[in-house]
Amino acid sequence: xTIFWHRRDLRLEDNAGLFAALRKEDNVQPIFxxxxxxxxxxxxxxxxxxxxxxxxxxLKDEYQNHGADLWVFYGTPIEVFxxxxxxxxxxxxxxxxxxxxxxxxxxxxxxxxxxxxxIQLKTLKDHVIMEGNEVxxxxxxxxxxxxxxxxxxxxxxxxxxxxxxxxxxxxxxxxQSEEPTALISLQAMGFSExxxxxxxxxxASDSIIxxxxxxxxxxSIKGTTRMSVHLRFGTISIRELMRQAQKNEKYYxxxxxxxxxxxxxxxxxKTVDQSFKPQYDDIPWENKESYFKAWCEGKTGYPIVDAGMxxxxxxxxxxxxxxxIVASFLTKHLMTDWRLxxxxxxxxxxxxxxxxxxxxxxxxxxxxxxxxPYFRVFNPTSQQEKFDSEFKYIKxxxxxxxxxxxPEPIVEHKKAREHAIAVFKEALx
Length: 429
Hints:
One of its GO terms (molecular function) is deoxyribodipyrimidine photo-lyase activity. It contains 19 helices and 5 strands.
């Protein structure tokens, strides 16, 4: 028997690892593991677990429609594979690569266990178009700035990189199941079955992609595709979305940013909790608890910031332009460590993806790969005037704005900006 291990690829079609397993092997049994190492740290109403559970059920139904089944386990990966080794005659395990630090450590552990039992582990590229070592500078070192990376990425990519893997041609090679199994319930794993947030549809709108550069910065309208949660969990293939994105260069470039941040995380895993520019770890963050609390609750007195935080708290989503505004406000106006903001987003965002989130927060704090200096400080008022001039977004999320119930600004923009620049300048000197 050959095992195919689903992780961040919750789909049948255009799945690189599943395609390789089915094309090269007979009797392929797909599995998924609800990983206790990850789940134990989550809130019991975490909507991402519900999202995954719903798509695992869909995937299971698809396999069962083909006479097969998806075996689903709840435990640590090492425990699950120890059991599989004991219960099955396994010769090979296929899976798609994951580049986050925990995933790499987990896979090294599984590789060692399998190898000790004479079982091969084969990993495939599926989550990105170009992996960490595929787009390098002429001296074989990684790029540190996006624009030259993007130019080289476009030179390297071919039609083959965007081609779909025709999995369905080989579904006859799935292990046939006599008795399909039921999916473990969320309740059995200690999670709520109540859906409190809407999940975006899996199809990106052609009209949104066509008008992307005109609509993407306006938070009051549906001007972005909302595909990030589907890319995060692989319910849609990055290749499929890239092919669709060829209709609009701006959107296409945004997807290349995703590859770029994955590449940065691959080559510089320390950036998860250390500044990409080491000298920025000398910034004396003030981390005032009352400021952080006001920011989290959307009660800073800056309506565009507060609208963004309330949208996040209520929906698990925040518009990308607003993400930049609230991150700049926390790190520069409130002099709060970017790691605190990154952790809050990690807890709240449905589409949380470590590489992009860390990259975005370090961009806001000026400590990351971006070439812009520390004295870039977004003015939340001018950002609001530019991107929500009619207060449509603000009125939706901050209904008390303009009344006595809305708080005064907790800091004054000009003073806060000058203070941040002075602190950064002194620390970096």
